[in-house]
Known about the structure:
Blueprint: H1 2-6, H2 15-39, H3 43-48, H4 55-66, H5 71-111, H6 119-123, H7 127-164, H8 168-217, H9 220-228, H10 251-263, H11 274-280, H12 285-302, H13 304-317, E1 328-330, E2 336-338, H14 342-350, H15 357-393, H16 399-423, H17 427-435, H18 445-451, H19 457-477, H20 485-505, H21 511-521, H22 528-536, H23 542-574, H24 578-617
Antiparallel strand pairs: 1-2
Amino acid sequence: MRNELLASVSFSLEFADWLVLGLYLISMLAVGIYFSKRASQSADGFLIADRNLPWWVIGFSNVSTYSDAGGAWVWIFFFGGFMYLNKIAWISWSIWMPLVCIFWAKMWRRSQLVTTGELIEFRYSSKVAGWFRGFYGAYACLVWAVVLLGYGASMTAQLLAPLVGWDILTITLIFGGITLAYTLMSGLIGAAYNDVPQFFIFFIASFVILYFGIQEFGSYENIVESALTQRPAEFWQIIPPSSGDNSFIDPVTLIAIIIMGLFMAGSPFAGEGWAAQRFLAARNERHAVLGQMFNALLSLVIRMLPILPLGLLAIALYPAVDPAQPDAMLLSSGQEIPSVEVWGHMVARYGDKAPGFIGLLLAAVLAGYMSTVDTLLQWGSAFIINDLYRRHIRPEQSQQEYIWVTRLVMILMMILATGLALSIQEIGNWVLFINAAMIIPALPLSWLRWFWWRFNVWGEIFAIIISAPLAYIVWFVLEIREPFWYPAGILFSAGLLGSICLAFLGKPEPDDHLKKFYLQVQPPGLWGPIRSELEQEGLINTQTQKREFRLDLFAAMGGISLCLSATFALFSATLLQWGTVSWLLPVILLSGVLFYVPWLKSNQLAARVAADLKQVSDLPNNKPRRPNQTQA
């Protein structure tokens, strides 16, 4: 099958293309070298950039990790249109991104942790918590980070294969190896700053290829008109639930997606993954919050400005074999090929328009891939070094030892991910599994551990351990995939009910430990007994905290409204539906005000509370404990 795919495009790279591609790769290595000295001074400098990332780097770095030159998203749009985008991400992301921005980003930054795995000992107090933290570190690295690396390598290789004529192994070894090299040198800070130019490379390249497509059709209006004739009317539906023959989001699935959005702060691929790592590395709480909202607008709207029109261009250029199930497409020669190759054929179609342009497009594809790889290497290795090696195997060793062990872990991760990439045959089933199903059982933890004082380590252990294995059984063994709400409901209910039952069967955490956690993080929610004790001791003012929560709630609702309205306005503008855009624009402006004003007041209030708490925490008996100080 792969040899046939490689033969479907007749294509070769010229000297100018290799020159552009070489300059891009050299520049990425140069950034790694530039930050290598700064990153190599300490383990925390290597893992969390000495907590000095500005908001704009956080935003660009996170969106780059979610992105590519457009190949994956163009194929997803070719296959399922706006409703498939809504199903995979755009509804749930429009909910979780503002929620994480307002509530979770500042809690992560206040925690002063190095990894999200460290939260286990910070939140729970027993020896079991200490040992489970070590297990979690290995699990997060091997089950989450390595699987996502393998999926990304397989997807990128299938996009690049028609262009360079290489197989998955060759593509991964060469381009993954270069990414590994600069990440080994510069850690998080080099990876994060490399992500900034990578975003602009694939963003600009997408606009250039769109320009050539418009030239071919004469106008963008002609592209839209041609694309609309290639699919049934239901394919172009924008706002869920689905209607007619469009079955991607039925009403029950929409409810399931909304529920998932409320809990995605607990996803290792969303609010609790590399995004949280960047919150921990932010200069302060304000930079963490602004970085996440910037990431939301970049991810949901700005990066899609050229990609959605490219999806329309792809549909206009390549008819689907079956418009009702467009997993295969027709070339002008009449040959049928998998639609996952659509991006490669578009690149080949316009690659000769200017010297070196195909090299720029390849660099754009690689920019998205390399941004994802450097993030996952850094994120996954941080779990091993901080939560397993430094905590249990070799505590109190030199900073240089920790840095070199981190680099060794990155190399091993790349080897394992390459093996996984070679084994993935059907990428379509993996798209929704990776982005949704695999982490559903663990999603309730995003609320239970932060917002409920009674939750304990046994509920945490249950949800984490069953998450990936149970999802794999449901998705691939039992093949329960459609309608989406059915497997989602099974997985979410199992995680939620099992975690709550085990929490009640076990004892609550000691009050002293919970009070230290609460003082440092200031979480909202069901903390009544702990909050009352702290107020009686004169350590907090519950009225001030209630006011901050109300402001945050208004800001979160404004943020969700902003993201959803901006998303649907972009979708409508893509189809030139200016009437819909005209009434959505006032909603966008009003939502922006409703987000920004309450958040600004909340941030100012939180700053005053933090100053008061600092005076309290400086007292020996009240100083919050860092998790690494827990007894084994």
